[in-house]
Structures are given as structure tokens and as C-alpha cells.
């Protein structure tokens, strides 16, 4: 690795490791894409898969051998040559073969034998669905031909970590993974990031539990910023938006930091950015809901990717979180949180809608005693 | 449920260190609420386990790939026929078998392809790289994933691939060029920025690194630098320098002129020798301990078992040595003279497992702390009720979801839970 890093023959926009296989050097994303497109023959990144005849003819030209020889080659190198089991004895690919020689299979078998000794105590309902997330958009074509993603577009994958990492999250880094196109605006990614903070409802509702709140935090507080490589990208699309990065920049000025720049989120596409791959950056919204985000991967679009532009940013992975159940029935997901509540076993305390009303109100809906109640939005709502 | 005190504590902590002035919302209750929500975030442990489990397959994957490539290398051929017969022989396609969950299938395919890609790129010799290409072809078409996982090719490696194609073409290895073209034609590649996705997992990286480095690329810089020619050259210069000094101060040899040790050359030679010996022992020691823990046999092994294990170790060492020797063929002559001695050292050291297998064999691995577990409020209440005789004992255990589909009488044997040893 060190050798290829050191030589200067590679172009300026060829990403290389900066440290310990951990993250790359800063690259300009648009130029990186151009470097690939310059060096790669267009048919290698196009969506079209060539028919076999054309393929053979082209190859015969490259190799300068007669087509008969090439057909012979084709037979030798066919995919069938890899099959270790004859066609009339198909094997079940879901079972580890008995007495395997390969180290991987030995380990897998050992693991499976171990698993059989365990009592099942979880039914993975979610697993069945989470598989679909990966395959549902595979090679999807839009109905409207104008929204096809052009060939040679790049896809960026961002890991957006859930807010506030305590000690116990150090090894997990619960996150959602978003795929965005290089030509998309930063604001498109911002709008696609879903976070419970955006859904919070402001206010105390113990006196009127039936008044359904009209606005959630997302409607009230629209300011947000991304921080990439010394630049704060502020969302300034609405008149209510404020530059919430200002405090940080002011603070940094007094601490001898290099000067931070600002830019407008809605003016920038991902092609315009300079970033490191695998390096932690920052997304902040709702004033103080802070998400670490990491650009994990950049690559050219592939025929198997979703080709409908309107479906991007695409959510491709999401950690599920446990839902908080009502402390009375332990069955339903909580909707209310109360404080200064003398009938509650703890403070604060969570209730589902039904138990909340039964405990705190009489049949006519009158409040029975004094307490404060707030709307609770469970982080598990996105599961 | 996090106790209220812990919430309040983190609240006060947060308000201390946070620049609360950039709180756009300015509503204390909302702030408080959100904090509660975030702090109560718990992730399903199952999702964590899967990624950690897959990581454990990296080592055996390397073992398998090196076995296959080593066999291929011993044929000293680059013909695809030879490779494919070996592939069938080893039933290598079965490596993907036995995974039920699609997500896990995909993840395993990705790891397998990523691991194999390394052998397709420099610094390996042409023959190993051809083997690497064939392995990629084999793995790509044998995987049971949906969609088929792609081979990642980084921009910086593309030049190497092009040069490789040129080499194959000029020496008329048609099957090599054909296979590569076919992979490209079936769109088996992702053209990426970096060889693997990077997620800034600092601590995990550190745990994996020692082994991978040991197998794939032992550092050979000192040996490259200090060759026999270089030593001769230095000896010459040193001799010359001494003569010059002698001519300058023939009458009264001054101590202040002794800037260089007089035994410079032997010293240099000895330190490189000892570094190299240390390196050999170190890498092979590491591999041996991994090998001994990943073997299937229980620790109460008979002597024949032990013997077999020993043989396997030295066979593997030979194999690795031959792969290394090929890829670093140009390196040093000094190494050759020492190779037999190194083998002796290895067999003596490998007779017994170097490390306690219970330790997991990974140097520097942090022992996992058991999570502290608080009983829920519901459980505590039930417990109290049970103790005062309010309810029968069976109320204490909750009914698991899967039991709903089982008959009441059907008693499941509750096995003693032991931790899986990797
Ligand atoms: Zn948030
Ligand atoms: Zn309830």
C-alpha cells in the first residue's frame, strides 16, 4: 500500500489511503468521477449487456485468433466448469455439506451445531423484511424515461449514525445508510434523513389530550447544517432558517482554529464537494440533534442499481431499535410521557394511549389530578 | 429503562459541555424530551452479532484461498483447465453453502470477493494473480446472493489491471484474457474509489490487522535495503574511509575521528538477520496459534491428532513460504540461505500451541465485558408479588412468541447456555 501511495504516477484525483487503511485523502468528488470515466471504456460502465455474438466477435479481434479457437476457449472457460456436483445430483445450498474440507465450512458447521443447542428465544420477524431492502430496488427502471439516472453517474453511500452515542454504543454505531447520486443537492439528502427529533411535538398536553398537534418540530425549526472538510453547509431555503453554525464558528475563532467557511446547502451538489472517504463528518439539525456521518463508499452506477432518479436518496440499511413499551400493559408502544405524576411508578413514565387515559382521566375525560404530560415519539417508529 | 437520575445526569452533563446558545429551539422541555428519547435508544443485539460473526470468517477464508492458490501454484501453470479441475476437486463452490439468511449470504459473498481481490493485484507474482483472477471468476459465479455481489475495483488499481491484461495478451495467455473480458462483460465489477467501504471503525480495524498483515504482506523493506551487494559496497567505502583517515592522521590517531563504528558492516548484517528471524518466528507463531484454535478437534487430542496438526502447520508454512518467495522473488539472496534454519525453528516452536486456546488466539483482543442487566420494573413487581404469595411461580417467566406455536405438553429441553468459542 505504501508503495502505491508514494509514487506520483497516479493522478491527482485518484483516491488513496491517508492513514492505516482507515480513511482516504481528500478528494474532489466530481474530478474523481471524471478520472474514472476518462480511463474506462464506455461499454464497461454502460447499462447495456452485450449479446454473446458481439462479445465473441470483439474478443476475436482483440486476441487475434480465429473464432473456432475462441469457441473452444468458451467451452473450457464456461461457468459449468466450476460445478463440483453433477447436474443430476443437485445439492441443497442451504445446508453445510457433511465433512467439509474448507476451513470456512468447518467454522460454519461448528457454529451451526452450537446454535442448535440454544433455545430459540427470538423470532426474527424483522429479518424477513430487512432482506427485501437490498433487493427491492434492484435494476428498477422508472416509468418515466426522463428520470433515468444517466450512465456513468456516481453513487455515494453515507452512514448516518443515530444521535448521542453513549459508552455502550461504541461498538455498534447504529446507523442508517443512504445512497445518493453525485448530481443531487445536499438538501435532497437532508430531507431524506429521518430522525425522531424531527417528529417531536412541542407542548404540554395534560389538559387537552385529544387536541392533536398540528405541527411537529420539523415544521417549526428548519435550520440545519452539514459539516464537511472545514465548510459548514447551511440550509437556507426558508426565511425562518438561521445559520446555526455561527456559534461554533465564533467559538472556534477565539480558540486559534483555522477559519471555517460557510456555504449554502441548496447550492451544492455532491460533485462540488471535497471530502475524505471513511472520515467522520457531521450533520446537525433541530438545534442540537447531532449525527456523525461517514461517506463510506463512492462508485460508478451499476446496471443492478436502482435507475429511477426520483427514488434517490435510497435508504439501503437501517439499524432497528427496541421500542419502549407502556409501563402498565407492557404490550403497546408508548405514546405519552408524564412527569410529576404521583400515580406513576417512576418519573418520567411512559404510557400507551389507552392506559394513559384510563389512569389519568375519568369517563368524561376530566383530568383526575395534577401532572404534566408530553407526547412521546418512540425511536422505533422507523423500524 | 434508564433510571431518571441517569437521564438527569446526562442532561446536566450535556447542558454543561454543550454550547447551549446554539439551541435554535430554546425550549427546555423539548430539549429534555428529546434527550430522553435519544438516551433510551436500544438496538437489537442480533444485528450487531451478525457483522461480528462474519468478521470471524476472514481468517478461514484466507486459509482456504491460500490452499487453493498454493495448489494452483505448484502446477506452475496458468491454464484455466488446471485451475478449474482443482476448484472442482476442492469443491470450492460449496464455500457459500449453509447460510440460510439472504442478508448474511450477501455479506459473506462480499467478504469472500474482497478477500480474493487482493490476490489479483500486485505485489503478487503473475501466476498468483492469474490464480486470483480465476478465483474471482469462480466465486462470482458460485455465490448464492441476490443480487450477485460485485467485485470491487478501486481507481488506483485499474492501471495494474490494464497492465496485467497487456502482459497476458503479449504472452498469449488467451484464457486469462477471456476470463477477464467475460467478467467485465457480465458487469461483475463495481468501479469504486477505495478497495473496501470505509466506515471509520478504528477499534475493529486494530483487532484484525495483525493477522492480515502477517499473511499477506510481511514487511521486507529492511531486507530490500540491506542486500549483499549493498553490504559489499558499504564495506568497500568503509575500507576506503579508514585508509583516508589513516593517511590524514598517521602520526597521532585521534579519537575524535572515530565517527563510525569500526565493525559497521557485520553489525548491520547481524541486525537485519535477527530482524528477519524474528519476523519469521513471529508470523509463523501467529499463524500456528490461529490454526490450532480454528481446528475442529477438541482440546483432548490424541498424540496422532497432535502429529497431524503439526504436519498441517508445517505444510501451511511451506505453502506460505512458497507464495511469499514467488511474490518477493527479487528480494534477497540472504533469505535463501536461512530458509532451512527457519524451518527448523518453526517445527520446534509449533510442537505445542503457543497460546492458551481459551484466549481466542487473537493478540490484543479486548475481553468482552458482560453487559450488566437490570430486571425490568414488571419483573421486579411480579417477583415481589410472588414472594408475598400473590401469584404462582410460572407468572415469573414470560411466554416467548415461538411457544405460541408449540403444544403445552411439549417440553423443550433447556440447554445450558455456553458462549461460542471462535
Ligand atoms: Zn437527528
Ligand atoms: Zn398500556
Brief synopsis:
The complex is a heterodimer of chains A (383) and B (422). With 383 residues, chain A is an alpha+beta fold.
Q: Describe it for me?
A:
- The complex is a heterodimer of chains A (383) and B (422).
- With 383 residues, chain A is α+β, with helices and mostly antiparallel strands.
- Among the domains of chain A are: 131-199 and 216-318, Structural Genomics Hypothetical 15.5 Kd Protein In mrcA-pckA Intergenic Region, Chain A, CATH 3.10.290; 336-382.
- Helix content of chain A is 25%, strand content 19%.
- Chain A has helices at residues 2-6, 29-39, 42-45, 52-63, 67-76, 103-116, 125-135, 186-192, 217-220, 246-253, 353-360; strands at 17-19, 23-24, 26-28, 154-161, 175-181, 224-228, 231-234, 261-264, 274-276, 280-285, 289-300, 314-318, 336-339, 349-351, 372-375.
- In chain A, the strands form 4 sheets. Chain A has an 8-stranded mixed β-sheet.
- Chain A is extended, with a radius of gyration of 28 Å.
- Mean pLDDT of chain A is 82; it is low at 1-8.
- The two termini of chain B are 32 Å apart.
- In chain B, α7 (126-142) packs parallel to α9 and α13 packs across α15 (334-349).
- Among the domains of chain B are: 56-199, no CATH class; 219-250 and 262-277, no CATH class.
- Chains A and B meet through β2, α2, α4, α5 and α6 of A and α1, α2, α3, α4 and α5 of B.
- Bound molecules: zinc ion (2 copies).
- The site of one zinc ion has 8 residues of chain A, from α11.
- One zinc ion is lined by residues 326, 328-329, 332, 351-352, 354-355 of chain A.
> Approximately how much helix is present in the residues of chain A?
10-25%
Compressed to H and E, one letter per element, the order of chain A equals HEEEHHHHHHEEHHEEHEEEEEEEHE
If you average the pLDDT of chain A, what whole number results? 82
N- to C-terminal distance of chain A: 40 Å
CATH topology of the domain at 131-199 and 216-318 in chain A: Structural Genomics Hypothetical 15.5 Kd Protein In mrcA-pckA Intergenic Region, Chain A
Basic shape of chain A: extended
> What structural class is derived from the secondary structure elements of chain A?
alpha+beta
Put simply, the count of helices of chain A is 11
Organism (chain B): Clupea harengus
Protein name (chain B): snRNA-activating protein complex subunit 1b isoform X1
GO molecular function (chain B): sequence-specific DNA binding
Region (Disordered) (chain B): 286-315, 348-367
Amino acid at each position: 500500500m505504501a508503495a502505491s501511495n508514494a509514487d506520483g504516477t497516479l493522478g491527482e484525483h485518484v483516491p488513496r489511503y491517508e492513514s492505516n487503511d482507515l480513511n482516504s485523502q481528500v478528494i474532489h468528488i466530481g474530478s474523481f468521477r471524471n478520472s474514472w470515466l476518462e480511463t474506462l471504456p464506455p461499454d464497461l460502465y454502460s447499462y447495456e449487456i452485450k449479446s454473446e455474438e458481439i462479445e465473441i466477435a470483439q474478443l476475436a479481434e482483440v486476441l487475434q485468433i480465429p473464432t473456432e479457437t475462441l469457441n473452444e476457449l468458451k467451452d473450457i472457460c464456461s461457468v459449468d466448469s466450476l460445478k463440483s456436483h453433477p447436474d443430476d445430483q443437485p445439492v441443497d445450498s442451504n445446508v453445510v455439506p457433511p465433512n467439509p474440507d474448507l476451513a470456512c465450512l468447518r467454522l460454519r458447521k461448528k457454529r451451526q451445531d452450537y446454535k442448535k443447542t440454544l433455545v430459540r428465544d427470538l423470532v426474527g420477524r424483522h429479518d424477513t423484511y430487512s432482506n427485501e431492502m437490498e433487493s427491492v430496488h434492484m435494476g428498477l427502471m422508472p416509468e418515466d424515461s426522463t428520470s433515468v439516472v444517466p450512465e456513468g453517474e456516481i453513487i455515494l453511500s453515507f452512514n448516518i449514525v443515530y444521535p448521542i452515542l453513549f459508552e455502550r454504543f461504541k461498538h455498534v454505531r447504529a446507523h442508517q445508510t443512504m445512497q445518493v447520486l453525485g448530481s443531487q443537492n445536499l438538501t435532497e439528502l437532508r430531507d431524506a434523513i429521518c430522525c425522531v427529533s424531527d417528529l417531536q411535538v412541542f407542548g404540554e398536553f395534560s389538559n387537552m389530550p385529544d387536541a392533536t398537534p398540528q405541527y411537529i418540530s420539523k415544521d417549526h425549526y428548519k435550520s440545519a447544517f452539514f459539516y464537511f472538510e472545514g465548510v459548514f453547509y447551511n440550509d437556507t431555503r426558508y426565511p425562518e432558517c438561521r445559520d446555526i453554525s455561527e456559534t461554533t464558528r465564533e467559538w472556534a475563532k477565539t480558540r486559534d482554529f483555522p477559519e471555517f467557511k460557510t456555504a449554502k446547502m441548496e447550492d451544492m451538489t455532491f460533485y462540488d464537494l471535497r471530502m475524505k472517504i471513511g472520515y467522520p463528518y457531521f450533520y446537525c439539525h433541530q438545534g442540537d440533534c447531532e449525527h456523525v456521518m461517514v461517506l463510506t463508499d463512492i462508485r460508478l452506477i451499476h446496471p443492478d442499481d436502482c435507475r429511477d432518479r426520483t427514488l434517490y436518496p435510497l435508504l439501503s440499511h437501517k439499524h432497528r431499535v427496541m421500542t419502549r413499551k407502556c409501563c402498565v400493559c407492557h404490550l403497546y408502544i408508548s405514546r405519552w410521557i408524564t412527569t410529576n405524576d404521583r400515580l406513576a411508578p417512576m418519573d418520567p413514565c411512559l404510557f400507551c394511549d389507552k392506559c394513559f387515559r384510563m389512569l389519568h382521566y375519568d369517563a368524561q375525560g376530566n383530568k383526575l389530578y395534577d401532572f404534566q404530560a408530553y407526547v412521546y415519539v418512540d425511536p422505533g417508529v422507523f423500524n | 429503562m434508564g433510571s431518571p437520575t441517569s437521564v438527569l445526569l446526562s442532561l446536566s452533563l450535556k447542558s454543561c459541555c454543550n454550547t447551549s446558545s446554539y439551541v435554535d429551539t430554546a425550549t427546555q422541555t423539548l430539549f429534555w424530551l428529546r434527550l430522553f428519547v435519544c438516551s433510551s435508544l436500544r438496538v437489537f443485539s442480533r444485528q450487531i452479532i451478525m457483522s461480528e460473526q462474519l468478521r470471524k470468517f476472514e481468517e478461514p477464508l484466507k486459509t482456504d484461498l491460500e490452499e487453493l492458490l498454493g495448489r494452483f501454484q505448484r502446477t506452475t501453470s496458468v491454464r484455466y483447465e488446471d485451475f478449474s479441475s482443482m476448484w472442482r476437486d476442492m469443491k470450492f463452490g460449496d464455500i457459500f453453502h449453509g447460510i440460510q439468511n439472504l442478508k448474511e449470504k450477501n455479506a459473506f459473498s462480499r467478504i469472500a470477493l474482497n478477500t480474493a481481490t487482493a490476490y489479483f493485484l500486485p505485489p503478487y507474482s503473475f501466476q498468483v494473480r492469474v490464480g486470483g483472477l480465476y478465483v474471482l471468476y469462480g466465486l462470482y459465479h458460485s455465490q448464492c446472493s441476490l443480487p450477485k455481489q460485485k467485485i470491487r475495483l478501486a481507481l488506483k488499481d485499474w492501471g495494474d489491471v490494464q497492465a496485467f491484461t497487456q502482459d497476458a495478451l503479449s504472452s498469449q495467455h488467451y484464457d486469462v484474457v477471456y476470463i477477464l473480458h467475460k467478467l467485465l462483460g457480465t458487469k461483475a465489477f463495481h468501479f469504486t474509489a477505495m478497495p473496501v467501504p470505509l466506515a471509520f471503525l478504528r477499534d475493529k480495524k486494530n483487532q484484525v490487522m495483525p493477522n492480515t498483515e502477517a499473511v499477506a504482506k510481511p514487511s521486507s523493506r529492511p531486507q530490500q535495503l540491506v542486500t549483499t551487494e549493498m553490504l559489499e559496497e558499504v564495506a568497500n567505502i568503509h575500507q576506503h574511509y579508514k585508509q583516508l583517515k589513516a593517511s590524514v592522521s598517521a602520526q597521532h590517531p585521534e579519537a575524535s575521528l572515530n565517527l563510525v563504528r569500526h565493525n559497521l558492516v557485520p553489525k548491520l548484517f547481524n541486525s537485519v538477520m535477527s530482524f528477519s528471524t524474528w519476523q519469521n518466528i513471529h508470523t509463523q507463531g501467529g499463524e500456528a496459534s490461529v490454526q490450532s484454535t480454528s481446528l475442529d478437534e477438541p482440546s483432548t487430542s490424541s498424540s496422532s491428532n497432535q502429529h497431524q496438526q503439526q504436519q498441517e502447520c508445517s505444510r501451511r508454512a511451506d505453502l506460505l513460504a512458497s507464495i511469499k518467495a514467488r511474490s518477493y522473488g527479487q528480494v534477497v539472496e540472504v533469505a535463501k540461505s536461512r530458509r532451512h534454519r527457519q524451518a527448523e525453528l518453526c517445527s520446534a516452536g509449533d510442537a505445542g500451541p503457543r497460546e492458551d486456546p481459551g484466549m481466542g488466539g487473537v493478540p490484543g483482543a479486548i475481553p468482552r465485558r458482560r453487559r450488566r442487566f437490570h430486571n425490568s420494573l414488571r419483573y421486579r413487581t411480579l417477583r415481589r408479588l410472588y414472594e408475598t404469595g400473590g401469584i404462582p411461580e410460572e407468572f415469573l417467566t414470560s411466554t416467548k412468541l415461538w411457544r405460541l406455536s408449540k403444544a403445552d405438553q411439549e417440553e423443550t429441553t433447556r440447554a445450558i447456555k455456553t458462549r461460542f468459542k471462535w
